[in-house]
Amino acid sequence: MRSFAEALKKQFSSEEIKNNFRLAQLWNNWSEVVGSKLADLIRPLGHKQHTLILGADDSIVIQEMNFFAPQILERVNDFLDQPFFDKIRFELIKGRTPLDQQLVITPVRQRSLKKPQNLGKLLDKLPKDSPVYKCYKKYISMFEV
User: Fold this and answer.
1) Looking at the domain covering 7-92, what would its CATH class be?
2) pLDDT beyond 70 at 63
C-alpha cells in the first residue's frame, strides 16, 4: 500500500494534470500571449482535444481572426512550450464567460426574514436527538439577531 504523499505525487505528476496546469497559465496570461489588442477582440473559451476554442462578440471579428489563426497558434504553442494545439475554432461568445476573465462571485444579499408568529413552540415536542429537532432549531436561529 502506498502512502498518501506517494499517491499525491503520482496524481500530480500525471501528464493530464500538467497539461491542465499549463492551460490555466495560458488563460491567466492570455493578453500577454496574444497581445492586448488581440485579447480585446478574441477570448479563450476552452479546448477540445487539440483544437483551441476562441470566442468573439462579433461575427466580423471571427471572420477576420481566421486570417490570424496561424500566428495565434504559434504564440499559444510557444507559450506552452509544445505543439499542444493544431487548429483554432472561433465561436460567438453569446454570454459565456471567457476563461481569461476572473469569475467574481458576489455574496447573495441575505433578505430580512419575517419571524413567524408561533416560532419555537414545537421545539419541546420533538425528540432532542432527531434530525428534525436539529433542523428546526437551526431554522429558529435564523431569526435571532
Assistant:
1) alpha beta
2) yes
